Amino acid sequence: MSLDRPAVTIGLPFFNAARTLREALQSIFAQTHQDWELLLVDDGSRDGSLALARAVDDPRVRVLSDGVNRGVVYRLNQMAELARAPYLCRLDDDDLMHPRRIEAQVAYLEAHPDVDVVSSPLISIDEAGAIRGIRGAGAARVGDPVSALRGCPLAQGAAMGRTRWFAENRYDPRYLRAEDHELWCRTAPHSRFAVTDEAYLFCREPAEVNLRKYVLSCRTDRRIYRQYGPARVGRRGTAVLVAQSFAKEGLYRAACRLGLAGRLVARRNRPEPPEAVARAAAVLEQVRRTAVPGLDGEPARRRTQG
Description:
- 42% of the residues lie in helices and 16% in strands.
- By secondary structure, it is α/β, with parallel strands linked by helices.
- Belongs to the glycosyltransferase 2 family.
């Protein structure tokens, strides 16, 4: 293990995340693979989450803050520039990693040198941490140009890739709220993506829909269809995708007015059998018992701040 050359860089951008950041950090320190560095990148927080990040005492942790709210796309590109490791993965400030995520995804990329980015299904949890279901399992085709256009092929928060690939293929700030979809679409013709069978991310999802953000995502998706669709599925196929997006947006608008949006959110996930729910809940409990140096009474260690 080398501080100057870790195996993996974990990038965690955060903004006003004091309520959830501790559990995200616990999931990192719970990893079975410990040869990592952590970039904690503040995006202009005002709620105390920066102080929480700076309290973490571990030489593998770098805290970076310029005091400005620049947005997640800027921070994702910044992390690719600053990463020291050959592999880069992202964790959102309200999600949690499965303890085997780093171990499993590093092993996958080392065993498949032709793969640029590997992701996984995600386990959806509510704001209290209760298991809601699984999403993204059993994908038949991942990342060919047509399937990448029709639907986002990789869960961004569960993805790990080669740092050089992320540095050479930056997120485009013009595609806000669907920057990952645009990135996969743009790079699919010359890249190789994969999804593991096992889920390695616990994704926290509110029961209700933020309609403003959802509408922006739909609008950006339509820009993506119009940009990449004609060459991949023809003008008629592009028109169908755009029409489907408008219909989906209308459905969510109506559901929000009727107070039924929570039902649509629930339908995104596949219910898990009781034994699978129990296993996932046990993993979450294990993560929540993990100590974070500097936050849980462990001896202070040198850390790096920026």
